[in-house]
């Protein structure tokens, strides 16, 4: 996802030891809200273009929540602040802002502006040793198949072990029930 969201305002919240945890406010899109819901409001994000170089190009964990501020869509100014959180499905004409709290990140005074995006998916490249091991395992499997075919057994036509075990279990259960019913009479 290459979409980015503009940061409207920076602030902080205090943790249990009164340390400042950075928090910013932004306007969310429906796709962002869906991503947040699917991830229990915990996302990995990349910050960019802030006034603080320590935040730029950094990948951090963010915790999303609805803000109590309501913004006028035309002017972009905060026009109201409710005491409680807005309703879950707010269909009003006024935009409800969201907050992103960055636990584990130091707060710097005077930071402003910027944007953020969801961190792109990272797939760790396989090491050469693991690739060599996988190739050896694949060769062994191929050799085993060739050995079975050369012995006259076609592995594709034989029943796998699990169905044979199930058939045996059903037959044993039937035999036990028959013996039980005969003794009961």
Account of the protein in words:
This protein has a domain of 115 residues. The termini are far apart. A hairpin with a 5-residue loop joins β1 and β2. Strands 1-2-6-4-3-7 form a six-stranded antiparallel barrel. By secondary structure, it is an alpha+beta fold. The protein is built from three helices and seven strands; from the N terminus they run ββαβββββαα.
Query: Which segments are poorly predicted (pLDDT under 50) over 5 or more consecutive residues?
Result: 85-89
N-to-C order of helices and strands = EEHEEEEEHH
| Assembly classification | single chain
Give the fraction of residues assigned to helices: 25-40%
Relative strand content: 25-35%
Question: How many strands?
Answer: 7
- Main sheet makeup: 6 strands, antiparallel, barrel
Topology:
Layout (H helix, E strand, L loop, with lengths): L3 E11 L5 E7 L3 H9 L3 E7 L10 E13 L6 E4 L13 E7 L13 E4 L9 H23 L10 H24 L1
Antiparallel strand pairs: 1-2, 1-7, 2-6, 3-4, 3-7, 4-5, 4-6
Task: Give a quick summary of the entry.
It is built from three helices and seven strands, in the order E-E-H-E-E-E-E-E-H-H.
What structural keywords apply?
alpha+beta, 185 residues, 6-stranded antiparallel beta barrel, single chain, 30% helix, elongated, 3 helices
């Amino acid at each position: 996802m290459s979409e980015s969201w503009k940061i409207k305002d920076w602030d902080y919240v205090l943790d249990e030891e009164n340390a400042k945890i950075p928090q910013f406010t932004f306007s969310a899109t429906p796709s962002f809200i869906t991503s947040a819901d699917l991830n229990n409001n915990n996302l990995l994000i990349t910050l960019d273009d802030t006034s603080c170089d320590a935040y730029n190009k950094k990948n951090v964990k963010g915790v999303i929540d609805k803000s109590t501020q309501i913004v006028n869509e035309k002017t972009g100014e905060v026009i109201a602040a409710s005491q409680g959180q807005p309703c879950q499905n707010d269909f009003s004409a006024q935009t409800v802002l969201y907050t992103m709290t960055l636990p584990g990140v130091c707060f710097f005074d005077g930071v402003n502006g910027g944007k953020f995006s969801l961190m792109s998916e990272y797939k760790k490249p396989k090491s050469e040793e693991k690739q060599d091991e996988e190739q050896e395992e694949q060769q062994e499997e191929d050799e085993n198949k060739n050995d079975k075919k050369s012995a006259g057994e076609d592995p594709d036509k034989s029943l796998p072990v699990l169905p044979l075990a199930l058939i045996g279990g059903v037959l044993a259960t039937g035999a036990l029930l028959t013996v039980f019913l005969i003794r009961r009479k």
